[in-house]
Amino acid sequence: MKTFLSIFAAMSTLLSTTTAADPAPTAGKTEIAIIGGGCFWCVEAQYKMLKGVKKAISGYANGSVDNPTYKQVCEGDTGHAEVVQIEFDPSIITYKDIIDLFWLAHDPTTLNQQGNDVGTQYRSAILYVNEEQKKIAEASQAEAQKDQTGKIVTEIAALKKFYPAEDYHQEYFANNPNAGYCRAIVGPKVAKFRHKLEEKQKLKESK
């Protein structure tokens, strides 16, 4: 009887240990990442190419005005940043991957500026939704700093509120590839990022 109870206890302990372990990401389950790297047309187009990304929505975050318009944000008085909300499948791509690639998608060393786009709305930003994302973002930034000649000025802050941008901003590059800004700015940045994704085998397969 004691032998049976000992075996039963050992099996119970093993089962408890197994079920208490962190489960692997489930296919189909999605998570959210929110980043800002200048004009959201660029960031959205870049991350739509990333394997495991389900959606990329351009929008505004962490300002002082509810439901801001593009005009209000561009005036620079609302405090919002142009950001992209990325919905991704963690069984395919991790949050760490998304942040590690972020440093290659833009220049994180220019304060409130990306190229000719100047203003607080164009600031480099990672807006985390939980403490785990915060830790990952801070560790990734520290590692990325080793490869930068200038100081990274990216804001890492808790997400307060995200507002989707107007409909015409969504998939802007895909819908307006020949627009002047897209040809001069978005296109080259997307092409450069595509090359990086190809090198790292993170490029989404074309349908």
Describe the protein.
- The chain is α+β, with helices and mostly antiparallel strands and 207 residues long.
- It has one domain: Peptide Methionine Sulfoxide Reductase, Chain A, CATH 3.30.1060.10.
- The protein is built from 7 helices and 8 strands.
- The strands form 2 sheets. Strands 7-6-1-3-2-8 form a 6-stranded mixed sheet, covered by helices on one side. Strands 4-5 form a two-stranded antiparallel ribbon.
- Helix 5 links the parallel strand 6 and strand 7.
- The N and C termini lie far apart (62 Å).
**Structural class, judged by helices and strands?**
alpha+beta
Whole-number radius of gyration? 21 Å
Uncertain segments are 1-23
Query: Briefly, what CATH class?
Result: Alpha Beta
Task: Give keywords.
207 residues; alpha+beta; Peptide Methionine Sulfoxide Reductase, Chain A; two-stranded antiparallel ribbon; 8 strands
